[in-house]
């Protein structure tokens, strides 16, 4: 069955970005000149997704406002004759078919995904965590959807990580089946380096089969007392196969100030309108 829907998870507290996130969702932070959430929506659309579901939480209504039409702003730009910005604004409001659902209690990523169950409606779905920005020639999700179609099984994105970082990621036990593609033999959430079955850490892209929802509903809280999608996928391995795609390009973890700064600098340096001047500025600064 074709994957038509993507669930974008934007319900986390963003404590690592306090105090910024006291009154602003971290998903609305700019990456150069667009909010992080827009990159997630664009990756979904550029991968062939038709419907986007965003899981939000209390205090995140700025996300919903962002993708709405803004007649007042459009009228102002029209009066000013700023046709370029006017069409940009209309494009954002019309860019995707988006539904929203709220996670009422922040009980973990697995729980956040399960909040979208009704809207996903028994279909397979993609899941995107907007914190993970992946800069690659072909969208990461598109590559994963191709793998999903080939193997007819769920797919998760992984990245090679350092020894000390196993404590921060879900880690897979891999069996390589093609270039950058692994069958997942087991998964474990945030193990100590000595217990980690590999150095392939799970990052924020998933293609999930519909059966995940039944499993999520009965997955007990795990690490951090949160319902972990890694634990649910481990349980689901008893019923069906799972594959992993070792992502291409560069991933930025914009959920931390340093990762967010790196992403801003790297993406701005690549832009024709900003890169040359920024490069000169850094030469002076350093
Ligand atoms: P993280 O733990 O990395 O993000 O969750 P966080 O909780 O937002 O940020 P910190 O740790 O407090 O700084 C991974 C992903 O799961 C989502 C987050 O939004 C993020 O995309 N999440 C996590 C939820 O949507 N709900 C939850 O209950 C927990």
SSE layout and pairings?
Blueprint: E1 5-9, E2 30-31, E3 34-35, H1 36-46, E4 51-56, H2 61-66, H3 71-80, H4 83-93, E5 97-102, H5 109-114, H6 117-120, E6 125-128, E7 132-135, H7 140-151, E8 154-160, E9 170-178, E10 181-189, E11 200-208, H8 212-218, H9 229-236, E12 242-246, E13 250-253, H10 257-269, H11 275-285
Parallel strand pairs: 1-4, 1-6, 4-5, 8-12
Antiparallel strand pairs: 2-3, 6-11, 7-13, 8-11, 9-10, 10-12
Helix pairs in contact: 3-4, 8-9
Bound molecules: uridine 5'-triphosphate (UTP).
Residues 9-16, 55, 103, 106-109, 111-112, 129, 131, 255 line the site of uridine 5'-triphosphate.
Structure description:
There is one protein chain. The chain has 286 residues and is an alpha/beta fold. It has one domain: Spore Coat Polysaccharide Biosynthesis Protein SpsA, Chain A. It has 11 helices and 13 strands. Helix 3 packs antiparallel against helix 4 (83-93). It is globular and about 60 Å long. Bound molecules: uridine 5'-triphosphate (UTP). Uridine 5'-triphosphate binds at residues 9-16, 55, 103, 106-109, 111-112, 129, 131, 255.
End-to-end separation: 53 Å
The CATH homology group name: Spore Coat Polysaccharide Biosynthesis Protein SpsA, Chain A
Unreliable parts: none
Bound molecules: uridine 5'-triphosphate
Provide the β-strand percentage band: 25-35%
Q: Whole-number average pLDDT?
A: 96
Sheet with the most strands: spatial strand order: 5-4-1-6-11-8-12-10-9
How many structural domains can be distinguished in the coordinates?
A: 1
Q: Estimate the helix proportion, in percent.
A: 25-40%
Radius of gyration of CA atoms, rounded to a whole number? 19 Å
Query: What is the CATH first-level class name?
Result: Alpha Beta
Most strands sheet:
9 strands, mixed
* Chain oligomer state: single chain
* N-to-C order of helices and strands: EEEHEHHHEHHEEHEEEEHHEEHH
CATH architectural grouping: Alpha-Beta Complex
Number of strands: 13
- Say what the CATH topology is: Spore Coat Polysaccharide Biosynthesis Protein SpsA, Chain A
Structural class: alpha/beta
Number of discrete helical segments: 11
Principal-axis shape equals globular
């Amino acid at each position: 069955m074709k994957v038509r829907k993507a669930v974008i998870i934007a319900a986390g507290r963003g404590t690592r970005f306090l105090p910024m996130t006291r009154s602003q969702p971290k998903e609305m932070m700019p990456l150069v000149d667009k909010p992080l959430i827009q990159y997630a929506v664009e990756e979904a659309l550029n991968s062939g997704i038709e419907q986007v579901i965003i899981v939000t939480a209390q205090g995140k209504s700025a996300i919903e406002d962002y993708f709405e039409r803004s007649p007042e702003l459009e009228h102002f730009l029209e009066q000013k004759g700023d046709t370029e910005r006017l069409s940009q604004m209309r494009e954002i409001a019309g860019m995707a078919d988006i539904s929203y659902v709220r996670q009422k209690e922040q009980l973990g990523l697995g729980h956040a995904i399960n909040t979208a169950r009704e809207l996903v409606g028994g279909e397979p779905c993609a899941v995107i965590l907007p914190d993970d920005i992946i800069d690659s020639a072909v969208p990461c999700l598109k590559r994963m959807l191709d793998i999903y179609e080939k193997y007819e099984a769920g797919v998760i994105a992984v990245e090679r990580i350092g020894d000390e970082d196993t404590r921060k990621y879900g880690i897979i036990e891999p069996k390589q089946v093609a270039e950058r593609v692994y069958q997942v033999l087991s998964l474990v959430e945030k193990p100590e380096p000595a217990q980690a079955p590999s150095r392939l850490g799970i990052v924020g892209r998933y293609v999930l089969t519909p059966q995940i929802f039944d499993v999520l509903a009965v997955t007990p809280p795990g690490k951090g007392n949160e319902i972990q999608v890694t634990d649910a996928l481990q349980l689901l391995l008893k019923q069906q196969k799972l594959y992993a795609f070792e992502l291409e390009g560069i991933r930025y973890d914009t959920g931390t100030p340093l990762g967010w700064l790196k992403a801003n600098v790297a993406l701005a340096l690549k832009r024709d309108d900003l890169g040359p001047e920024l490069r000169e500025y850094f030469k002076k600064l350093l």
